Structures are given as structure tokens and as C-alpha cells.
Amino acid sequence: MLKREFEKSYVERFGKDFVNSFIEKIKTNYCQYIRVNTLKIKPDVLRKRLEEKGFVLESVKEVGYAFKLVDEPFAVSSTEEYLLGYLYLQDKASMMPVIELNPKPVEIVLDAACAPGGKTSHMAQLMNNEGVIAAMDDNLDRLKAHLFNLQRLGIKNTATFNLNASKVKKLGVLFDKILLDAPCSATGTVWREKKRLKAVNKHEVLKHASLQKKMLKACVEVLKPGGVIVYSTCSLEKEENEDNTVWAEKTLKLKVSKTKYFFPQTDDTIGFYYAVMKK
Ligand SMILES: C[S@@+](CC[C@H](N)C(=O)[O-])C[C@H]1O[C@@H](n2cnc3c(N)ncnc32)[C@H](O)[C@@H]1O
Fold it and tell me: What is the pTM of this model?
């Protein structure tokens, strides 16, 4: 499952034992999580409804409104509860950047790479469907899924733009908070998508790292002084994560307050990274 070039760099960075346990974990079945859409239903009420249908759920210690989907008699996305917008299927690690950003109902927030809307809808939930979210993505097909998800989940505080985030200045708005869940090599998704690490190479990683810097720079230009930006990727590559964080600190003069990695074998999640930074 791991290409030689990735395995070598992971061993150098994380050590042999860590990589062996990573390899063992990604051979197992990926376990899904659901985020309860608290705009529409209380977590315990949804849990009861799904358990009555035979779903086995486990509480998530870090997120009071999320459950691990331990067993499903049929796809949860085929349930009435899903269609009614009571839940969103989302990896636990993917919930963390929004929790760190902590957007408030009175704030103007940018989701600079938004489709298909997992994090936009999470932000709207924390904002109680108030304030404003500008959500943008340059991929129209993915935006269709985004709009469908926002509609299903009852999100009303979001304006969606089909725009390249590098051109975000065009909106003429300064933001209190920004999430840049950047396009990336997605090497961290290998537990869920077993062939991912065969499909990418280091050249692609570097291409993404360069695009991510461009997007970070454009985002910081529209962040209010003192504003917070959370940068995240589902990549495990240093060039897309630590290196870009250090670059943002040095070149964009951001103050880094926290960085965090998630790994399948230690966190029961996809591989994921985020950095919390202040202007
Ligand atoms: C990691 S995905 C975003 C996932 C989303 N935040 C969520 O939680 O559902 C990255 C997104 O960036 C978009 N993208 C790539 N280049 C972009 C650019 N220059 N400007 C805006 N969006 C871009 C891709 O189309 C993709 O939808």
C-alpha cells in the first residue's frame, strides 16, 4: 500500500515502529464517523432513532455531537435521518479545524476551499446559522454537491462562490476568521482509500505545496488584523504541512499557536494536519 518513496520518508520522520503500526492499521476496514447536525436534532435523539434501526454508535470523547459508526445494517446515507439533514458523514479529524476556528454567530468567516461542504456546514452549525460564511471553490461540479449538502442540512448563513481562492480579494471583504482546508495530495486518506498512496507521487506533493502557499497568501490578505486562520490538509507530507506553516510564519508574518497531526493507528482517523495561526 505504501510506495517506497513515501515509506522511506515516513520512516525518517516518524520511525520504523510508527510506520509498521501505520501499515497494519491501514490494512483494516476504515471506520466512519457522523457529525450530528445540531441545527436540526439533538445528538441523543438521533442516536436513539438510529439505534432503533440497528445502527451501533459510540460516543466521541472529543466532540459531543459526533458518533463513531461501529456497525451499520445498511448505509446510513440511505436513512430518512440522512435525507432530513440530521447528520453529515465526516471523519473525526476533519471536524477538528472548525472546532479550533470556533466561528461565532456574529462573525464574517471565509471557507476558502469549501466543497463538498463538510466544514462549511460544521461552521454554520457552530454559528447557529447566523453571521456570514463566504464559501468558495473553483470546481463547479464539487460546488453542486456543496449546495445540495447545505440545502439538506438547512444552512442559511452561507453565500457560495465559484471562485479561485487566489482571487478572493475580488470580494472586497475582510474576514474575522478563515478556514483554508486546502487541496492536497490526500496521502492521509490511505486508510479510507487503499490505493491513494499508489496514485500520488512526490512531484504532485510539491505541486500542491506551491498552490497551497499561493492560497494561504491570498487568504491572509483578506484576514482582519488579529484574525485567525486555520490551515488544514488530509496530507501526511511535510512539504504541505510543517513546511508551509513555517513559510507562513516567516513570509506572511503569522503567529502559529498550534499544530497537530492525526494518524489512523493513534487517533482512529484519516491522516490529517492542521495549523492555527493569527495575523
Ligand atoms: C480538501 S477539499 C475541501 C473539502 C471541504 N473543505 C469539506 O470539508 O467538505 C479541497 C477543495 O479545494 C478546491 N480547490 C482547489 N483549488 C482551488 C482554488 N484555487 N480555489 C478554490 N478552491 C480550490 C477543490 O476543488 C476541493 O473542493
Answer: 0.97
